[in-house]
C-alpha cells in the first residue's frame, strides 16, 4: 500500500508537476527523484511525508508573518517545528527541494544551492521520518546514510541524543529561524548556555539538577522521565533533571530570547517543565549593550546606568564628546588612541553576567594597571575590578547588559571604556534616566504562541507608555513634596498624592471613631464615609514611639507612591499634635483570616488560588517593582484584605522599615508575627526579602488547609511508624486533642505524594490532587530554611501562573520543620489536652519561641 502510494506520488510529481491536488496527499517514504516546491503544496499546509503513526510530518513550513519557507519536521499534534533544514537560507516561492540519489538539496530558481546534505557514502533509496521525529535518508539495504538528529537546530526531542561538542543554536526571532547569538553546548561535564562564547548559565548550578556521579559526560538524552547527561558507557548518569510534571511529548528548546526550556505537550497545551536561566536579568543581552537590568516581577526593567543615557535605543555616554569604541574595528592601531581612552565608572550596585563564570584576567593588580591592560587591547571594551583581591576582569569583543544588584558587599566595580578627547572632569550625575520595561514575553516560545506573545507585547508596551507618563508627573510632584517636607504639613495639597485631612474631617467621617473594623500591631482601624460618599478605612496609629512629622511625611510620600492592584492604597493622612492617621482604601470583605478560618461561606478552590496569586503579585511588586524595595516583614492572613468579588490587597506594608536600593539588605528592627517568622530572624543571619517569602509560604499552606498552621485539631494522629491515621481530611469524633504543626504534615504528605489529604476538608473534593500539589510544592519551596533556596516572589508568581516550572522542595532544607513540629507537640502534651481556648491562641504563635528570645534579638 505504501509503495503504491509512493509510486502514485512519484508519478504525479515527476510527470504531472502542474497537477491540481484536491486534498492532502502524503506518504511514509519517498524515493528519488522527487521534487517539491511550496507552491505545489501550500494548499494543504505543505505536508508530504508522515512518520508511521503520523506523529511527525515533513513539510514546507511557512512563517505567517514573513515570506520565509523552511523545509521542516513538525510535531503534528502541537504544530511545533522541531527541526529545519535550511534555517540560514529560507526558501522563497520559486525555490525547490529535491531528493536525488545523491541526497537532499534546496535550490533557487537560478539553480544555486541554498542547502544540501553532505556527500553520502552510497546512493539514497528512500527518505523517511521515524516516529521519534528523526528524518532519515537510507540506502537500498536500509542503512542510514544521513539523519536530521545529527544536525540539531534549536530543539531536541525525546530520544534524540546530543553527543559532547554538539550544540543547539537559538533562532534570531520566532519568525526568522537563522542562527542567533545564543548557544547551548554540551561539554564533558555540563550543559552550558553561551552568548558570543561567554557562558551565562550552567545546568549543574540549577536547583533542579542533581549530580549523580563524577564521570565525564559523553551524551545528553531526554526521555519521558528526565533530562540526563550520561557517561560514556551510557548506563551511568552524571547529572539529571527529573521531570515531575504530567508526561507527554516533550521538547527542549533554546528560545531566541536566550532561555533553555523544556515543555510537555499535555491535553493540547504546552506546559513548562524546566527553564534556565529563570531570572530574566541573567540573560546577557536582555537590555541591550550596557543596558541596566533590574529584576521586577516577570519582566526585566531596563534603564541606562549613571553617566549613560538612552540615545537611539542604545545606552550612550551622557557626555556627547565621548563615544563607545567597537572591538578592534575603528582602531586597529590601539596605541594611537591611547591618550583619548578614558573610563566611566558604573558604581557599586552593578555587575556583569560573565564575571561569575570565569577567572579574572589578572589578580593582585590595582585599578589603573587593570585599565591599562584594557587600553592596550582594542578588543577590550570594559573592565571590572575587585578592590579587595585586585582581580581584573576584561570584557572583550561585545558588551551585554548589566545586572543591578542590591548586594552591598559587592566590591567588584565596572568601568566602561570610552573614547574622546576631553575626558569628563565633572561627569554629569544623571540617574535612572528613561526607564523602560522590556517585556520578555512568554517563556515557552513556540510558533503557536507567537500571536499571543505579540498581543502581550503590544499590551505591555502601551502599559509602559502609560506608566511612564504617570510616573514622570508623579515624580515631579513628589520632588516638590519632599522639598517642602520641612515646611508645615498644612500647606500641602497636591492632587494625585495622599491628601491631607483635618482631624475634624476624619472625626466626622468616622462619626467620632465609632465603627471599629480592625485592630493591628500599629493601631486601630475605623470605617468612615467622606463627604463625597467614598467609604474609607481610617487607621489611627497607636504605636508608642510616635514618629516626628518629618519621618511620618517621608513615609507617607513613599507609601503614597506605591500603586499596585494588590496593595491597599493610601489615599490620605492626618497629623494632629502627636496623633497620626492614615486614610486607606476600604476593603469590604475584611481580612483573609476571618474569611479563611471563620464560619462563613467556604472559599472555593479557585478563589483560594486567586488570593494566593494576588498576594504573591503584591509582594513581588513590593520587593522589586517600585523605586524603594520594601520588605513587608509581617505577611499574615490578617494583613491580606479582600473586597467585593475577591479583589486581594495587602495592607500594612509601608509601615515596616523601608529598604532603599542604596541601603544594605540588612534589616535591624525586629518585626513580624510569630508563626510566620522565618528561621533567620532567630539567628544572626541577614534579613532579606526572603523573610516575606517564608511568611507567604506559611500563609499559602493555611490557604490550602483552611486553618491555622499551628492549631488544635481533633483529627487523626501520627502513629509509631509515622503514618498519619485517618488523614487530615477526616474530622473524627475522637476525643483526643492534638496539636498539629501543619507545615510538617504538608512535608510528610509531600514525601508520600498524598496532596489531596492536605486540602481543606470543607472543599469536599472540589479540587484535584495536582492542583493541591502545585500550591503545596510552592509553599514548601517558600519555607526552605536556607533563604537562598527560597524562590523570589516574582518566581512564585511565575509558578502560580504556570509560566515557570514548579520548584522541587528540598527535603534537606525542610528538616527543621520536624524539629519545630516536635517542639510544638511536646509543649502541647505538657500543657495537657484540656487546654482552653486561650492557651490555643498562644500556640498560634509557635509558643516554644519565648518572647524574650524574640525581643532580645536585635
Ligand atoms: C534522477 O535524476 C538524475 C539526474 O538528476 C538522473 O541521472 C537519474 O537517472 C534519475 N533517476 C531516476 C530514478 O529517475
Ligand atoms: C503506532 O501505532 C500503533 C497502533 O496504534 C501502536 O501500536 C504503536 O505503538 C505506535 N508506535 C509508536 C512508535 O508510537
Ligand atoms: C501550524 O503553524 C504554521 C506556522 O508555523 C501555520 O502556518 C499553520 O497554519 C499552523 N497549522 C495549524 C493546523 O495550526
Ligand atoms: C529500515 O530500518 C528502520 C529502522 O532503522 C526500520 O524501522 C524499518 O522497518 C526498516 N525498513 C525495512 C524495509 O527494512
Ligand atoms: C530515561 O533514561 C534514564 C537514563 O538512561 C533511564 O534510567 C530511565 O529509565 C529512562 N526512562 C524511560 C521512561 O525510558
Ligand atoms: C567594523 O565592523 C563592521 C561590521 O562588523 C564593518 O562593517 C566595518 O567595515 C568595520 N570597520 C572597519 C574600519 O574595519
Ligand atoms: C600610551 O601613551 C603613553 C604615554 O603617552 C605611552 O607611554 C604608552 O606606551 C602608550 N601605550 C601604548 C599601548 O601605546
Ligand atoms: C598601581 O600599581 C603600579 C604597579 O604595581 C604602581 O606603579 C602604581 O603606582 C599603582 N597605582 C596606584 C594608583 O596605586
Ligand atoms: C587582545 O585580547 C584578545 C582576546 O583576549 C587576544 O586574543 C589578543 O591577543 C589581545 N591582543 C593584545 C595585543 O594583547
Ligand atoms: C580601593 O582600595 C584603596 C586602598 O585599599 C582605596 O583607597 C580605594 O578607595 C578603594 N576603591 C574603591 C572603589 O573602593
Automatic annotation (TrEMBL):
The Bulb-type lectin domain, residue ranges: 27-150
Catalyzed reactions: L-threonyl-[protein] + ATP = O-phospho-L-threonyl-[protein] + ADP + H(+); L-seryl-[protein] + ATP = O-phospho-L-seryl-[protein] + ADP + H(+)
Family annotation (Pfam families): B_lectin, Pkinase
Entries under SMART domains matching the protein: B_lectin, S_TKc
Class in the EC hierarchy, top level: transferase
Binding site for ATP: 540
Segment forming the signal sequence: 1-22
Transmembrane segments: 440-466
Subcellular location: Membrane
Record-linked PROSITE patterns: BULB_LECTIN (PS50927), PROTEIN_KINASE_ATP (PS00107), PROTEIN_KINASE_DOM (PS50011), PROTEIN_KINASE_ST (PS00108)
Keywords in alphabetical order: ATP-binding, Disulfide bond, EGF-like domain, Glycoprotein, Kinase, Membrane, Nucleotide-binding, Receptor, Serine/threonine-protein kinase, Signal, Transferase, Transmembrane, Transmembrane helix
Gene3D superfamilies with a match to the protein in the record: 2.90.10.30, Phosphorylase Kinase, domain 1 (3.30.200.20), Transferase(Phosphotransferase) domain 1 (1.10.510.10)
Entry keyword annotation includes Electron transport: no
EC number: 2.7.11.1
Protein name per UniProt: Receptor-like serine/threonine-protein kinase
Annotated organism of origin: Quercus lobata (Valley oak)
Amino acid at each position: 500500500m505504501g509503495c503504491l502510494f509512493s509510486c502514485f506520488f512519484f508519478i504525479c510529481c515527476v510527470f504531472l508537476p502542474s497537477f491540481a491536488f484536491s486534498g492532502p496527499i502524503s506518504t511514509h517514504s519517498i524515493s528519488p527523484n522527487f521534487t517539491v516546491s511550496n507552491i505545489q503544496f501550500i494548499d494543504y499546509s505543505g505536508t508530504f511525508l508522515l512518520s508511521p503513526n503520523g506523529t511527525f510530518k515533513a513539510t514546507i513550513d511557512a512563517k505567517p508573518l514573513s515570506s520565509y519557507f523552511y523545509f521542516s519536521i513538525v510535531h503534528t499534534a502541537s504544530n511545533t517545528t522541531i527541526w529545519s533544514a535550511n534555517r540560514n537560507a529560507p526558501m522563497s516561492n520559486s525555490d525547490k527541494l529535491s531528493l536525488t540519489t545523491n541526497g537532499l538539496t534546496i535550490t533557487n530558481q537560478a539553480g544555486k544551492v541554498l542547502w544540501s546534505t553532505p556527500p553520502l557514502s552510497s546512493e539514497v533509496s528512500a527518505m523517511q521520518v521515524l516516529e521519534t521525529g528523526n528524518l532519515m535518508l537510507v540506502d537500498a539495504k536500509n542503512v542510514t546514510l544521513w539523519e536530521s538528529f545529527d544536525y540539531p537546530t534549536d530543539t531536541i526531542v525525546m530520544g534524540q541524543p546530543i553527543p559532547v561538542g554538539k550544540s543547539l543554536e537559538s533562532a534570531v526571532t520566532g519568525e526568522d529561524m537563522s542562527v542567533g547569538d545564543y548557544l547551548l553546548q554540551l561539554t564533558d561535564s555540563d550543559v552550558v548556555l553561551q552568548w558570543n562564547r561567554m557562558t551565562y548559565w550552567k545546568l549543574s548550578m540549577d536547583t533542579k539538577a542533581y549530580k549523580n556521579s563524577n564521570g565525564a559526560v559523553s551524551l545528553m538524552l531526554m526521555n519521558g522521565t528526565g533530562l540526563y547527561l550520561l557517561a560514556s558507557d551510557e548506563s551511568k548518569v552524571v547529572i539529571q533533571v527529573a521531570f515531575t510534571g504530567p508526561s507527554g511529548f516533550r521538547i527542549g528548546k533554546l528560545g531566541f530570547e536566550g532561555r533553555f526550556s523544556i515543555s510537555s505537550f499535555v491535553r493540547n497545551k504546552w506546559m513548562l517543565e524546566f527553564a534556565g536561566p529563570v531570572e530574566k536579568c541573567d540573560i546577557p543581552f536582555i537590555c541591550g549593550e550596557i543596558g541596566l537590568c533590574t529584576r521586577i516581577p516577570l519582566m526585566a526593567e531596563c534603564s541606562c546606568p549613571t553617566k549613560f543615557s538612552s540615545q537611539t535605543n542604545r545606552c550612550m555616554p551622557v557626555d556627547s564628546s565621548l563615544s563607545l569604541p567597537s572591538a578592534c574595528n575603528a582602531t586597529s592601531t590601539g596605541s594611537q588612541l591611547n591618550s583619548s581612552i578614558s573610563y566611566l565608572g558604573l558604581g557599586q550596585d552593578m555587575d556583569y553576567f560573565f564575571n561569575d563564570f570565569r577567572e579574572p584576567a589578572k589578580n593582585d593588580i590595582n585599578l589603573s594597571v587593570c585599565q591599562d591592560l584594557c587600553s592596550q587591547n582594542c578588543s577590550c571594551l570594559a573592565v571590572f575590578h575587585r578592590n579587595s583581591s585586585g582581580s581584573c576582569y576584561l570584557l572583550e569583543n561585545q558588551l551585554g547588559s548589566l545586572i543591578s544588584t542590591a548586594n552591598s558587599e559587592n566590591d567588584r566595580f565596572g568601568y566602561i571604556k570610552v573614547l574622546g578627547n576631553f575626558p569628563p572632569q565633572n561627569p554629569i550625575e544623571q540617574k535612572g534616566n528613561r526607564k523602560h520595561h522590556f517585556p520578555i514575553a512568554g517563556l515557552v516560545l513556540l510558533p503557536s504562541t507567537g500571536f499571543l506573545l505579540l498581543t502581550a507585547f503590544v499590551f505591555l508596551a502601551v502599559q509602559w507608555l502609560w506608566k511612564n507618563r504617570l510616573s514622570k508627573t508623579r515624580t515631579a510632584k513628589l520632588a516638590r513634596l519632599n522639598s517642602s517636607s520641612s515646611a508645615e504639613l498644612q500647606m500641602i495639597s497636591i492632587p494625585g498624592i495622599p491628601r491631607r485631612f483635618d482631624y475634624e474631617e476624619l472625626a466626622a467621617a468616622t462619626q467620632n471613631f465609632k465603627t471599629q473594623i480592625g485592630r493591628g500591631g500599629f493601631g486601630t482601624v475605623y470605617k468612615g464615609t467622606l463627604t463625597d460618599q467614598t467609604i474609607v478605612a481610617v487607621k489611627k496609629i497607636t504605636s508608642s514611639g510616635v514618629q516626628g512629622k518629618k519621618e511620618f511625611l517621608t513615609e507617607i510620600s513613599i507609601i503614597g507612591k506605591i500603586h499596585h492592584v494588590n496593595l491597599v492604597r493610601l489615599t490620605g493622612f492626618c497629623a494632629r499634635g502627636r496623633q497620626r492617621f492614615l486614610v486607606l482604601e476600604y476593603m469590604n470583605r475584611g481580612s483573609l483570616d476571618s474569611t479563611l478560618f471563620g464560619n462563613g461561606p467556604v472559599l472555593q478552590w479557585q478563589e483560594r488560588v486567586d488570593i494566593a496569586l494576588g498576594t504573591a503579585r503584591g509582594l513581588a511588586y513590593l520587593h522589586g517593582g517600585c523605586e524603594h524595595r520594601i520588605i513587608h516583614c509581617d505577611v499574615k492572613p490578617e494583613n491580606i484584605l479582600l473586597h467585593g468579588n475577591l479583589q486581594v490587597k495587602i495592607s500594612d506594608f509601608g509601615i515596616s522599615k523601608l529598604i532603599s536600593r542604596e541601603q544594605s539588605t540588612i534589616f535591624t528592627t525586629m518585626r513580624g508575627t510569630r508563626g510566620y517568622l522565618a528561621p533567620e530572624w532567630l539567628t544572626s543571619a541577614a534579613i532579606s526579602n526572603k523573610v516575606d517569602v517564608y511568611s507567604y509560604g506559611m500563609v499559602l499552606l493555611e490557604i490550602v488547609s483552611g486553618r491555622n498552621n499551628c492549631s488544635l485539631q481533633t483529627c487523626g494522629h501520627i502513629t509509631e511508624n509515622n503514618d498519619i491515621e485517618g488523614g487530615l481530611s477526616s474530622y473524627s469524633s475522637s476525643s483526643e486533642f492534638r496539636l498539629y504543626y501543619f507545615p510538617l504534615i504538608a512535608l510528610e504528605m509531600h514525601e508520600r505524594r498524598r496532596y489531596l489529604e492536605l486540602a481543606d476538608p470543607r472543599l469536599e473534593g472540589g479540587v484535584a490532587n495536582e492542583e493541591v500539589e502545585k500550591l503545596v510544592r510552592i509553599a514548601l519551596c517558600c519555607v526552605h530554611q536556607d533563604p537562598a533556596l527560597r524562590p523570589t516572589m516574582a518566581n512564585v508568581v511565575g509558578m502560580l501562573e504556570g509560566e515557570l516550572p514548579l520548584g522541587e522542595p528540598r527535603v534537606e532544607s525542610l528538616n527543621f520543620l520536624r524539629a519545630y513540629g516536635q517542639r510544638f507537640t511536646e509543649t502541647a502534651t505538657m500543657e495537657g489536652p484540656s487546654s482552653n481556648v486561650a492557651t490555643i491562641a498562644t500556640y498560634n504563635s509557635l509558643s516554644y519561641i519565648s518572647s524574650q528570645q524574640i525581643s532580645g534579638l536585635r
